[in-house]
Amino acid sequence: MRISFILINLLWLASCATQVTSIKLDNNRVLESGRGFVLLGIQTNRNLKSILIDGPQNIELSSADIKQGTNYLLVDLEAGIYTVHKVRLDNYWRVDLDDEEYWTFEVMSDQISYVGHLEIVRRGYWSLITNTELVNRSSEALQFLEEKYPKLLASRNLTYGGPGNDNFFQYLAASKKE
């Protein structure tokens, strides 16, 4: 009886997050009302199993998009406030991210919101020590979009939606107008 209850709860919890994958084609996509693009950089020294993000639309970034090295994920989501909640390193280990203020970002409607670069460094294979940090690398994110998604970048405003304040993209937009 207890095992059935536990299995049902696990299945229910697993079904709560929508698994999303990164947009691969550069085109001027028409978004539904109230949706925006989010750009998240990920740098890790190991392949990761998944990243769980809570918000208006609970999502799970799958292992297909979070491989060892530096990756950028570009997805369209419902606009709103999101929080990186959990990083599953593999089948056995995970990192729970409790400080919501540091792991919270905003997706703005009909814009590209760069939210930061998630750096995950795991010390040794069986080690419990994992350094996890969300850092702002706005200039690298801009360079990535210019190279891989120039059409999308030309048709949308690029803003910083990660923790803290960064006016780099607004400064660039103002200097282009002059």
How would you describe this protein?
The radius of gyration is 17 Å and the shape is globular. Mean pLDDT is 86; it is low at 9-15. Strand 9 and strand 10 form a beta hairpin. The protein is of the alpha/beta class. It has helices spanning 2-14, 100-103, 138-148, 150-155, 168-177, and strands spanning 18-20, 35-44, 50-54, 59-62, 69-78, 80-88, 94-96, 104-107, 112-122, 130-135, 158-160. The strands form 2 sheets. Strands 1, 3, 4, 6, 7 and 8 form a 6-stranded mixed sheet that branches. Strands 2, 5, 9, 10 and 11 form a 5-stranded mixed sheet that branches. The chain contains 5 helices and 11 strands. It has one domain (18-177).
List the helices and strands and how they pair.
Blueprint: H1 2-14, E1 18-20, E2 35-44, E3 50-54, E4 59-62, E5 69-78, E6 80-88, E7 94-96, H2 100-103, E8 104-107, E9 112-122, E10 130-135, H3 138-148, H4 150-155, E11 158-160, H5 168-177
Parallel strand pairs: 1-4, 2-9, 9-11
Antiparallel strand pairs: 2-5, 3-4, 3-6, 6-7, 6-8, 9-10
Order of helices and strands: HEEEEEEEHEEEHHEH
Report how far apart the termini are.
70 Å
Q: Judging from the principal axes of the Cα atoms, what is the shape?
A: globular
Specify the biggest β-sheet.
6 strands, mixed
Cα radius of gyration in angstroms:
17 Å
Helix content: 10-25%
- For the record, the count of structural domains works out to 1
Number of strands: 11
**Mean pLDDT over the residues:** 86
The percentage of residues in β strands lies in 35-45%
Number of helices: 5
Taking pLDDT < 50 over at least 5 consecutive residues as the criterion, the unreliable ranges are 9-15
- The oligomeric state is single chain
> Strand pairing plus helix content: what structural class?
alpha/beta
